Fold each of these.
Amino acid sequence: MGKVVINSYEDFEKLVGQQIGISDYVELTQERINLFADATLDHQWIHVDPERAKVESPFHSTIAHGYLTLSLLPHLWNQIIEVNNLKMMINYGMDKMKFGQPVLTGQSIRLIAKLQTLTNLRGVAKAEIKFAIEIKDQPKKALEGVAIFLYYFN
């Protein structure tokens, strides 16, 4: 499935209720996890100490921060959709977000997105995107929720 191209509010309207796309997989390496720990000052051993995690963690591995998984949403979203003719786009919020299962170091994740609703707010497109972040070869999702974006078209 190729990238969906949106040029107007009307293009968005045609997608309501449909799956928009699926991103490529991104691997969550220990290096990426460590960089995220440095950026957020969250150096909990379950994320950054592989030797201790092998022994003390119920997962026998370090795991990615839940917020690292969430923070990859814009990157994964941009693999699925290209929105043109914009003045700007704003992250408006998250609803019903739930972490289903930790992502072990070395696992790969991808995004599946569906346009749940679209509302015209005086010329601003409010898009509610139902999303799931899947872990490769795992039945449970890492993260599910609804991302809300405001698109200001030219």
Note: The beta strands are 4-6, 19-22, 26-27, 81-83, 86-99, 108-121, 124-135, 141-153.
Amino acid sequence: MTDRLIDLLLRRAPRERLLLGLLVIAVLPTALWFAVLEPMAARRAEARAELTEVRALQDWVAARAAEMAALGQAENSGPAAPIGLSALEQSLISADLRPAVTGLANREGGGIDLRFEAVDFAVLMGWLSRQDPGWGYDIAAFRITRGEELGVVAAELQLVPQV
């Protein structure tokens, strides 16, 4: 193999040999860069970006956990008295959810059944998160079904007084 290479180079003019040498010297590092080093650098940059995202997510979760712990301490003063059907209806009216309610009824034992046929998911979840800390009810059953339109759901809730 080396004999053939030497024979090939000896048949070339000195200028051609110099150009072939420069070509090998320039092409070899370039090929090494594009074949090995550049993909490794790209993967490293992606890994650093993912690490930054994971750390940001961990910080966010820790902040939400601290908020929930603070809320939990506030709630540990004992169960709140249930707000009642009319107060619940007033909160639905203030959140512009009353037109979406298809069923609102008292249950035996002081609970409430609440049903929505077609309601915006984000609005419903926002209303629930605002009501839950102090409304005096626990959610005994919650069923949510995807609606025909994007972001619209059907939901059923069974609320029972906190004990």
Note: The beta strands are 101-106, 112-120, 137-146, 152-161.
Amino acid sequence: MKHSGLQRDVLSLYRKCLRVSRTKGEARLHFEKYARNEFEKAIGLDKKDFSAIEYLMRKGQRQIEMYSSPGIKDIR
């Protein structure tokens, strides 16, 4: 199945979240659960609401940058 450009971007963001979670040691499961919950919240969005999707993508990128910092040990 072919994905649209925006769908590929969303999947890429999710993979990036999982990669960052691998750097967190024992807190890995907390980071993965948080990412999964955030993505599941957005499931109900209209797939044609591009502005909302792009907003959530930007928000997710900022969160990844913040949480990828070595100073952040856990998320709850």
Note: The mean pLDDT is 92.
Amino acid sequence: MATLTELRAKKGFICDMDGVIYHGNKLLPGVKEFVNWLYAEKKPFLFLTNSSERSPRELQQKLERMGLEIDESHFYTSALATAKFLKKQSKKNSVYVIGDAGLTNALYEAGMTINDVDPEYVVVGETHNYNFNNISRAVQLVLRGAKLIGTNPDLTGPGENGIFPACGAMISPIEVATGKKAYFIGKPNPLMMRTGLKMLGLHAQESAIIGDRMDTDMVAGIESGLDTVLVLSGVSTMSTLEEFPYRPNYVLNGVGEIVPE
């Protein structure tokens, strides 16, 4: 069994946000101490989130409101990863989007145009503007040949008031109605992990990933060669571990336990 001493010796960390750093607008216990420790030890770190709602600047400002001052360069989202993927893959640079500003802005900056007539891709991310009309339009466009992309496969996410539906749940009606399966860009897709490691400037063996999900965060780490740290401050519990054929290297109550006493 790996020890906390070995974990603390890692050169850098990739860290999920929802359920690890905060719930909604509430900072989780031990987070400030963990971030202060990362800075004090001069360890490169990256907040790598499957959420596509907010831009890195918005995430930076959100943490600032909670009392954490972290540079914008420490954030990478599934929206940015999706925009990067489509910039390389798309021929027409046209998309129909169901998602919030973090996703649409990332796509605009990658040179994509919004098209609700004959887009090459239908792209779905988390949004508070989810309704029957945009789902129906997406179904029609996919049936006409548009390719279906999801920013991440998460079915649920943790919030201040409990569990809420995430991208995987929101895209499901489109998949069922069209018979088409979405391609998901966020964790555990290695595309996102490779970019994260490149941003850290480290090799997988030198790093650890911290997350609250067995089905995305832990798979991402295992398949990319990083040590895995499951925290029980989000959607997972100890009983959750028994549902999967793999185990994380570490199971902690929260990130605060990484900080030496």
Note: The chain is about 35% helix and 20% strand.
